[in-house]
Amino acid sequence: MASQTNQRITLEPSTFNETDLDLLVSFLHQAPRTVERTPPALLDPDGKKQIIPFALYETLTTIVDALHQNKGVSIIPTNTQLTTQQAADYLQISRPTLVKILESGTIPFTTVGRHRRVLLADLIGYEDQLRRERRSYLKSQTQQATADNSYFDH
């Protein structure tokens, strides 16, 4: 398959034979999960073997699992520009809420004519920042509750 650096790829479960997916899921989940495991590899149609990173193997497993569960999968480059509706859908918030976040300067955006566009990479960064803030807040609350002996209070 040719490289598609700026194009979304969508895989629909109906594209694949159900029996083939069953066998692939079974194969992928039988792989050892220990530290001493052999690096995963791909085999091209000519039989040439290429070692792949474990993270990519896990990603491929996730894709196959989703297809096996009759869920479509989209692969989108992080430099893709999304509309505000697409960005809101990605973050699972309303479009007006997203617009408020954009206008506050929390997430960068560009305008094309009158329309805002948001990079997927910036949405991922925003999610990561929220996750870090939540963890930090929970950690501080736990430390405070521990310090004042109220951690186990009901």
UniProtKB/TrEMBL annotation:
<dbReference type="Pfam" id="PF12728">
    <property type="entry name" value="HTH_17"/>
</dbReference>
<protein>
    <submittedName>
        <fullName>Excisionase family DNA-binding protein</fullName>
    </submittedName>
</protein>
<dbReference type="GO" id="GO:0003677">
    <property type="term" value="F:DNA binding"/>
</dbReference>
<feature type="domain" description="Helix-turn-helix">
    <location>
        <begin position="82"/>
        <end position="124"/>
    </location>
</feature>
<dbReference type="InterPro" id="IPR010093">
    <property type="entry name" value="SinI_DNA-bd"/>
</dbReference>
<keyword id="KW-0238">DNA-binding</keyword>
<dbReference type="InterPro" id="IPR041657">
    <property type="entry name" value="HTH_17"/>
</dbReference>
<keyword id="KW-0614">Plasmid</keyword>
